[in-house]
Amino acid sequence: MSQRLQRLADQIQRTLATLIRDEINDPRLTGFVTISSVKVSPDLGYADVYVTILEPHNDTGMNIDSHRESVAILNRASGFLRTELSHTMKTRTTPRLRFHYDEVTAHGNHMMDLVNQAMKKTHESEKHYDDETAE
């Protein structure tokens, strides 16, 4: 990706994060939306926005089915977000927004949770073993 496209993607990411937080008032969007990355096509026609959604009632964050509705809400709001984005950008055209669930980040978070759980169990079993040998 060229440096110009990367700067544009960074600007879109920052602006969209603010717009989603402040302007999207859909009660079905219950989770905390984080924009992982934005990839802009070379012709500036499209911007693929990769998001992760932290649901308040779901600890793992790995279930893509629970996030389909949130991604669909964001895709339905893409016209509004594109219009708002065009007011802040200094480009002739504003790319169309396509939202995607970022499975890579969600999978990485899930793996980190599993590692933390394994480390905790290992620590607990070592402590239990030390207590038994001390007797």
UniProtKB/TrEMBL annotation:
Report the leader peptide range. Answer: none
Q: Which GO terms describe its molecular function?
A: ribosomal small subunit binding
Where is it localised?
Cytoplasm
Pfam families membership: RBFA
Keywords linked to the UniProt accession: Cytoplasm, Ribosome biogenesis
What InterPro entries does the record tag this protein with?
KH_dom-like_a/b, RbfA, RbfA_dom_sf
A GO biological process held by the record:
maturation of SSU-rRNA
Q: Which Gene Ontology cellular-component terms appear in the entry?
A: cytosol
Write down the HAMAP family for this protein, in alphabetical order.
RbfA
What the record says about family reads:
Belongs to the RbfA family.
Question: Subunit structure of this entry?
Answer: Monomer. Binds 30S ribosomal subunits, but not 50S ribosomal subunits or 70S ribosomes.
What is this protein's function? One of several proteins that assist in the late maturation steps of the functional core of the 30S ribosomal subunit. Associates with free 30S ribosomal subunits (but not with 30S subunits that are part of 70S ribosomes or polysomes). Required for efficient processing of 16S rRNA. May interact with the 5'-terminal helix region of 16S rRNA.
Q: What is this protein called?
A: Ribosome-binding factor A
Q: Which organism is it from?
A: Moraxella pluranimalium
The organism that produces this protein has a lineage beginning with: Bacteria, Pseudomonadati, Pseudomonadota, Gammaproteobacteria, Moraxellales
